[in-house]
Amino acid sequence: MSLVTPDTIRTLQRKLYTKARQEPAYRFYALYDKLLRADILSHAWRLVRANRGSPGVDG
User: What gap in Å lies between CA 54 and CA 51, rounded to an integer?
Assistant: First the structure.
């Protein structure tokens, strides 16, 4: 099981980061379509499963 972030997710992260940095006043009104993608949810589930569902340092 690989916990490395897939290239498709990394590309999306870079695009969102670049847009936010270039246009600080821009508002992302609809991110649900990006967060509810199957590849993002499956990767998030793998990370949770590998962490055994335990909370982070902040509890």
Answer: 6
Query: CB under 8 Å to 36, separation ≥6 — which residues?
Result: none
Looking up tokens 């055994």, which residue turns up? 52
| Residues in the chain, overall count | 59
Render pLDDT for 24-49 as a digit per residue (tens, 0 to 9).
Answer: 999 999 899 988 999 999 999 999 89
The identity of residue 51, as a single letter, is N
- What tokens does 45 get? 């589930």
The answer for residues whose C-beta is within 8 angstroms of residue 10's C-beta and 6 or more apart is none
Whether the Cβ atoms of residue 20 and residue 26 lie closer than 8 Å to each other: yes
